[in-house]
Design brief:
alpha+beta, Ribosomal Protein S5, domain 2, 5-stranded mixed β-sheet, 5 helices, ExoRNase_PH_dom1, RNA-binding, tRNA nucleotidyltransferase activity, tRNA binding, nucleotidyltransferase
Amino acid sequence: MRPSRRAPDELRKVSLERGVARYAEGSCLVKFGETHVLCTASLEERAPPWLRNSGKGWVTAEYSMLPRATHERTRREVTSGKPSGRTQEIQRLIGRSLRSVVDLTSIGEKQIVIDCDVLQADGGTRTAAITGGWVALHDCIQWMRSRSMLTGNPLKDHVAAVSCGIAGGQPVLDLDYAEDNGAETDANFVITGSGGLVEIQGTAEGKPFSEEEFLSLLRLAKGGVAQLVELQKLAVM
């Protein structure tokens, strides 16, 4: 039995609440169990300098964790002068994931910034941020379309993410902190609504995992992301 008493292929309770930030062009408070992440989408009228005169736009992300998102207070990274390696890696992952389903040429020379702030962490903050970030991005694009800033819809597909791992010798879906902390294998899967693989991050802790075990995790991830995409569809109806 898992610590959360969930079935091996069972997600934590997931919710996607839109429109939670008054001033942002798009926003979503995403909850994966006790992991809560506030995602906001902000439209900037200029693309990054390297895209100037290219006719293309950009989607990027920033990620941070509030000091008391965890059991003990962590210092704000701004006090150290730069984000940690972990923070940089996560925000780049979020940006890559969201760009994978956006036609950047359709945006024009504009930039959409997705800010993902972890209010409470219990494992899977990056996967929650990607899943909720898509909803915030969707609403930002709808905001632009409602003001005739876009001629079409640059959002080509859904994208969501989920963690899987081998805990207690068993492949399981959507690890919380208790499982993640002791898992033999931990992996994050980013998958589009049509089933395309965007990114896979997998690590063995001690004992290497087999191809069969990897495929079992992939099957779990595909099923989990399919459920998350359905929740995204319901959220933006």
